[in-house]
Specification:
homodimer; alpha+beta; Glutaredoxin; Glutathione S-transferase Yfyf (Class Pi), Chain A, domain 2; 2 domains; 4 strands; about 55% helix
Chain lengths: ~240, ~240
């Protein structure tokens, strides 16, 4: 049976980290909420109708009788199932640790445009967004990129992958984080990626993987916009 | 060999979620950075001296040759090792999913007093902190508490535990999240917990577990203060 991915239609958001794993693996999946009446099905599960283990929020994934929410937990599950993580437990834990660090970076990227409340409009927190974005560009992105550079440099199998000698969901997620930051902060990222050549090379390499290269220009990949995590507001970039 | 926990001395912080798991299990552990010269050892590992898998930030745990960072990943590891998670894979994934949701709540609690940047003083973002805290108290805490209530209500084994019929690290972490919020937002939490009786009961029950009851008044438990995640600034509560 096909995997069922549930996520808000109209934006990449956190669902995109799951989509990239499914696409890279060539997995059979349905992006449920983008289908006609799909939101009804999503809301039913979100309201936990009858489910003993209701997810807190999208994205969540249904695989037969397994229902799992939280992006990093979904990828922990898919990593084993789709061979997108090492087979040994320590390797899986390390891959997950990297994923959780990428998740922290992504949450900070979101809060750049919503530092006060997700429930308020950007326009109602624009002044605060400018202050937060300046710190994010000057202090936070460089700290994360430096760590990813270190992880790549210390991989005993070489700098091609974050973990071991094969693609993992952590590579796909780092691609997406960098790709999103490039969209949101093009000026800052051009400067910062020149100091993080191994991360920049990983981003390019993932984009060229056959299934990812086929996915990115397809309709299954939703375009960036100012509804998602990564938003391009020129006043927040420098 | 004893577990080695590495975390900033002088505050509970994210390290506390790991401490509670170690304490509940009666595990032999060293809180390295609180020892004389412990910070030297922590910084050495943090700078990744020689480590192929350097942690991004504290807390991290060393167990013989295993080094694991990221609070939720540490608990995923300890859950299996210390019998603080179900034995079946789906149960472990569900416990982890709850932990990741608690981690989201905790990150939001932190950003209440630091909505602009962790690197700035609270006094330099007090106006923004007031705005963010109002939304956190009025919208966010209630949403999380409602979900935990649902999870407890739907546990087929009863409302005593979040998962199954035994204590897990998720119960300990929810205790700590509620305990910290009670310290930071006493007025709001008195009101909100009256609407979340199962969560309030879990908090009370965990505090009375023999090993936790022995730990809480001990010197191993550091007091709350205005350096940690949960800070009591009266102007942020209502």
């Amino acid at each position: 049976m096909a995997f069922e991915l549930y996520y808000w239609p109209g934006l990449q958001g956190r669902g995109e980290f799951v989509r990239l794993a499914l696409e890279e693996a060539g997995a059979d999946y349905v992006d449920v909420a983008r289908r006609h009446d799909g939101m009804v099905a999503m809301n039913r599960l979100l309201e936990g109708d009858g489910a003993n283990r209701p997810p807190y929020a999208p994205p969540f994934l249904k695989d037969d009788d397994v229902l799992v929410g939280q992006t990093a937990a979904i990828l922990l599950y898919l990593g084993r199932k789709l061979d997108l993580a090492p087979r040994d437990e320590q390797g899986q834990l390390w891959t997950h640790q990297i994923q959780l660090t990428i998740a922290d970076l992504v949450a900070e990227a979101h809060d750049c445009h919503h530092p006060i409340a997700s429930s308020l409009y950007y326009e109602d927190q624009k002044t605060e967004a400018k202050r937060r974005s300046a710190d994010f560009r000057d202090s936070r992105i460089p700290k994360y990129l430096a760590w990813f550079e270190t992880v790549l440099a210390r991989n005993p199998h070489g700098t091609e992958h974050l973990v071991g000698d094969a693609i993992t969901y952590a590579d796909l997620s780092l691609f997406q984080a960098v790709d999103g930051l490039n969209y949101a902060f093009p000026i800052a990222m051009a400067r910062l990626l020149s100091e993080a050549p191994a991360v920049a090379a990983l981003h390019t390499r993932v984009a060229r993987r056959p299934r990812i290269a086929a996915y990115l220009p397809s309709k299954r990949r939703q375009p960036y916009n100012e509804q998602g995590i990564f938003r391009h507001y020129p006043e927040l970039d420098a």
